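User: For my dataset I need records formatted as: sequence, then structure tokens, nothing else. Please produce one.
Assistant:
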Amino acid sequence: MRLYVGCAMWQHPNWQEKPLPPAERLHNYASWCNAVEGNTTFYATPHRRTVESWSRQTDPDFRFVMKLPRTITHDRRLTGIDDEMTNFLDAIEPLGRRLHALWVQLPASFVSLPTLASFLDGLPAHYRCAVEVRHPVFFENPRATAQLESVLEAAGAEWIPFDTTVLFTGPATSPAEAEARAKKPHNPRRTRALTEFPIVRYHGRDDVAATVAGWQPWIDTTVAWLREGRSPTIFIHTPDNAGSRTLARRFHAEVRDRLPDLEPLPDPIPTDPMTLF
């Protein structure tokens, strides 16, 4: 029984007293969390040697959920992308089993299920795929929901919910919250898993108590998934993400309070200077 938790990044200015060398940042993060969102690949395909470094810094059981480049999902909208996909898959190949899923984040205007079905059908069979949709029709229209689920289930793909309901509850209380609300989608919470490997993105608030209170439905859902034999991955976001690493561990601890047999997270590597007191 194993739960994976992580953040939207593996480095943040607030996470170390002094910045770590690039070759140590992911290694340090991986002592706090056992999964990470690969958001940087949305903007550019990384060099293969960079990905080799990521592999060296993590254990084989660490999970990367790697976002496809925007040229594939947003610019070309999953069509005419054979060369781009080949280059991307070659670049991330050094991750090996660490690559948990290819993350297909679709633009809010995307509704073409035949295009999505064709894309998923064309992927090499050994890649696990997870899709994040943002168009409201998939959340508000039961027929559209069922059609999307049918496409995903036929391909063995998961639906990634991005739960921002807590973020949009009440007025923004800081510039960071206002900026997050301007950029993030606002769709109903979805908790149905389609595969053995559900993936959730949860967005909280600046206020820790509000963030923790808001994730309680996900605690219940995650416990149920684990009891069913699923292997979920939960990513914790906050407006500035300064506390997300600690919050991810807290989420894991709350689930483990309910399921004591759950495998614990590793002990974090200390990075702050030692003191006498």
